[in-house]
Design brief:
Largest sheet: 7 strands, parallel
Number of domains: 2
Radius of gyration: 24 Å
Structural class: alpha/beta
CATH topology of the largest domain: Aldehyde Dehydrogenase, Chain A, domain 2
Strand content: 15-25%
Number of helices: 9
CATH architecture of the largest domain: 3-Layer(aba) Sandwich
Shape: globular
Strand order of the largest sheet: 10-9-11-8-7-12-13
Order of helices and strands: EEEHEHEHEHEHEHEHEEHEHEEEE
CATH class of the largest domain: Alpha Beta
Length: 337
C-alpha cells in the first residue's frame, strides 16, 4: 500500500536568512537511479517502482530467475499506465535475470546512485562485497526476545508466540528466546503456544531440562553452537538461558544482526537499559518484533529494512529514498577573508 501523503521531494526542510538579501534553504531531492536486487518475491517489483517513481527516482529492477516471468508480466501491466502519465520508459527498467546483469549493475559507477539488495544473507553479502556503487544493506534478521526475571508471563506467552509463529518466513520473526535463569520453571507455560504450532525448539542444557516432559519430545532438541546467530525462517526457535540482563545484552551483541530485538520485563530500569544499549534498527519493550514493517510504522509500502546506520535505518519508505541539497540565494555576495 502506498501512503497518501506527498512524495516529499522538493519539500522545504529548513530555511533561514543570512543577512538582509541572502537566504539558505534545505530541500529534499531524489537519490537518482536506484537499483534493486531481489529474489523470488514479485511483489517487490510493484513496491519498488511505486516508491521510486513517487520520490522522483528511476529504478533498475533485477529480480531472480525463478520469478522472471512474473516480474515481466507485472511490468507489462504497469508500462502502458506509466506511458499514459508521461513517465519515460527507461525510468523503470527490468534487467535480465542472468547473473551477468547483477555484475553490471553493481559495477555501474557514474550511472547508478545506490543499490538496495533484498533477499537471503548470501545475496546481501555478495552485493556488499562486490558492489563498486553505494549500497544500502537490508540485512537478514537474527531476532531475539529476552524474557527478564520480572517479565509478565501472560505478556510473554502472547509476545513470543506472535513474534515466532505469525509469519515464520519474514525477517522480523523471532529466532532466539533468551530466558533469565530464575524463570526456567515458567518456560513450559511460556512456550506452550509454540507446541501447538509444531515449532521445533533447540534449547541449551538448562532450558532443555526444564522442558522435558512438558514439550513434545519430537520437537525438543539440544541446542548446538550453530543454532545461535541463525535466521531460521522456519518453525524453529533457539532458547538460551542467561544469568542477567548484561548476559542477554552480550548475547545479542554477539549474535544479533541489528534488525529487531525485544525485552519482556516489568523493571523500568531494565527496560531503559535495554532500549538504550541494544544496537538495532528497532528495539522493543514489551511488544512483538512482528511490528518491524513499513506499513505498521505508518510508512505504507517499504523498499526494505535497513540494518546499517548511514543514510537510513529500519523500514525504508518514501523519505528514505531521498536525500537533500542546499539552495543559496544571493544578490552578488562574495566571501571575505
Amino acid at each position: 500500500m502506498m501512503p497518501t501523503t506527498p512524495s516529499g521531494t522538493r519539500t522545504l526542510l529548513s530555511c533561514k536568512p543570512l543577512g538582509k538579501v541572502f537566504s539558505l534553504s534545505k530541500v529534499r531531492v531524489p537519490l537518482g537511479v536506484v537499483g534493486i536486487i531481489y529474489e523470488a518475491r514479485p511483489n517487490v517489483t510493484f513496491d519498488s517502482l511505486a516508491l521510486c517513481l513517487k520520490t522522483g527516482n528511476a529504478c533498475l529492477l533485477k529480480g531472480g530467475s525463478d520469478a522472471a516471468a512474473s516480474n515481466a508480466a507485472l511490468l507489462a501491466v504497469a508500462a502502458p499506465v506509466l506511458a499514459a502519465h508521461g513517465v519515460p520508459p527507461a525510468a523503470v527498467t527490468l534487467l535480465p535475470p542472468e547473473r551477468a546483469a547483477t555484475e553490471a549493475l553493481l559495477g555501474a559507477v557514474g550511472y547508478v546512485d545506490v543499490v538496495i539488495p533484498r533477499g537471503s544473507q548470501g545475496l546481501i553479502d555478495y552485493v556488499r562485497q562486490t558492489a563498486r556503487v553505494p549500497v544500502i544493506e537490508t540485512g537478514a534478521g537474527v531476532v531475539h526476545t529476552y524474557f527478564d526475571e520480572s517479565g509478565d508471563l501472560a505478556k510473554g506467552r502472547a509476545i513470543v508466540a506472535n513474534a515466532k509463529i505469525r509469519r515464520v518466513s519474514v525477517c522480523n520473526a523471532l529466532d532466539c528466546l533468551l530466558l533469565h535463569q530464575s524463570r526456567l520453571p515458567d518456560l513450559p507455560a511460556l512456550t506452550a503456544p509454540l507446541a501447538e504450532a509444531q515449532v521445533q525448539l533447540f534449547a541449551d542444557e538448562p532450558a532443555h531440562a526444564a522442558l522435558q516432559g512438558h514439550y513434545p519430545a519430537a520437537l525438543l532438541h539440544p541446542a548446538a553452537a550453530e543454532h545461535f546467530g541463525t535466521e531460521f525462517l522456519d518453525y524453529k526457535l533457539a532458547i538460551k538461558t542467561v544469568a542477567s540482563l548484561d548476559a542477554a545484552l552480550d548475547h545479542i551483541a554477539r549474535y544479533g544482526s541489528r534488525h529487531s530485538e525485544a525485552i519482556i520485563s516489568e523493571n523500568p530500569a531494565h527496560l531503559d537499559t535495554f532500549l538504550r544499549v541494544v544496537d538495532a534498527a528497532a528495539v522493543y519493550a514489551n511488544a512483538s518484533t512482528a511490528f518491524t514493517d513499513g506499513a505498521q510504522f505508518g510508512l505504507g509500502a517499504e523498499i526494505g529494512i535497513s540494518t546499517q546506520k548511514l543514510h537510513a535505518r529500519g523500514p525504508m519508505g518514501l523519505e528514505e529514498l531521498t536525500s537533500y541539497k542546499w539552495l543559496v540565494r544571493g544578490q552578488g555576495q562574495v566571501r571575505q577573508g
